[in-house]
Design brief:
By secondary structure, this protein is an alpha+beta fold. Helices cover 23% and strands 14% of the residues. The protein is globular and about 85 Å long.
């Protein structure tokens, strides 16, 4: 009778060791492939957003506003007089109603017409009748590499809940604005509060001007619907920055370029921040989508963020 020879313990350990080595060699490659796929998917989102904005301009003759504001004297209910241990700074008590942002305006052009048709833009985005709209998850506004996307609760400066919303991984360019929080109606970018710029206003060249860029929810969570008046935007716990910061409404829909670069460890809620290592993806005014290195010179970034400053950028310079 012929006896079958079994594997010895040593042989099994050698085989397992070889398998572990192979897995160790394959994992970095798999991770690189996954990261590249996420980056391409994110760029595709921005491409859809850029095309949607162009369709909006074709129909309406102008760009959508960064967000809509109507001075009707309203004070959000959560900001009515109360007793404070420490009164909230004035900038946090501004009304931003009705607050609907640029992403809400382009919904028909990203295959979300049913949601768009339910919005009454003269009513406040915080109105309870829109509670179910605010939490609709939007794949086109969600970067697949952004670990913070999803439903979250917007709070006021005192930590009192205002309402739930779904996140947006992308934000509009306000350009250079040293006082964006108090003066969101200023800035050198393509979007402001109540702005209605045309492509003709972008005299630096559409292909050399930021339109929409990344600001991941893993960094700060912002509602895609726009500004929820009376609410604040806060650094997400565990974000890869040195400190936790709180900003008022305008930072929910816009970002600026001023003194900090991209993906800065000192970033605040009005800065661009991407989950993709080394770059931030942008949709430019011409609808093209390109990654910009987070090592790009701040002067180059300021030029790219400005619509009509007369600054021309070397396309190979970032």
């Amino acid at each position: 009778m012929t006896r079958r020879r079994a594997f010895t313990l040593l042989e099994l350990l050698v085989v397992l060791a070889i398998i572990m080595v192979l897995v160790g060699l394959l994992l970095p490659a798999v991770q690189k492939i996954r990261a590249a796929a996420y980056r391409l998917s994110c760029q595709n989102n921005l491409k859809q957003i850029g095309l949607a904005i162009h369709h909006y301009v074709q129909v309406n003759g102008r760009l959508p506003p960064g967000y809509l504001y109507q001075d009707n004297g309203e004070i959000p209910a959560n900001l009515l007089p109360r007793v404070y241990d420490f009164p909230a700074p004035v900038v946090y008590t501004y009304s931003h109603n009705p607050g609907w942002g640029w992403a809400s305006y382009i919904l028909p052009y990203v295959e979300q017409t049913p949601v768009y048709n339910r919005i009454e833009f003269k009513k406040n985005a915080t109105d309870p009748s829109f509670a179910d709209i605010r939490v609709v998850p939007m794949a086109v506004f969600s970067c697949p590499a952004d670990s913070g996307v999803g439903r979250f609760t917007v709070h006021d400066v005192n930590g009192v809940p205002i309402g739930d919303a779904s996140t947006n991984s992308y934000t509009a360019s306000n350009g250079q604005n040293s006082n964006m929080l108090k003066e969101p109606f200023r800035g050198t970018g393509m979007f402001q509060r109540n702005s209605s710029f045309t492509f003709a206003d972008v005299t630096d060249g559409l292909g050399q001007t930021f339109m929409i860029g990344e600001k991941g929810a893993f960094f700060v969570k912002a509602p895609w619907v726009g500004v929820m008046s009376g609410g604040v935007i806060e650094t997400t716990p565990g974000a890869p920055v040195f400190r936790s910061v709180m900003h008022p409404g305008p930072s929910m829909v816009m970002a600026r370029i001023l003194s900090r670069g991209l993906n800065s460890p000192n970033a605040e809620p009005y800065d661009y921040f991407s989950p993709h290592p080394g770059v931030v993806n942008f949709a430019f005014g011409d609808g093209s989508v390109r990654p910009v290195k987070d090592t790009a010179n701040i002067q180059v970034l300021r030029a790219l963020a400005s619509r009509n400053e007369g600054d021309v950028v070397d396309p190979d310079g970032y």
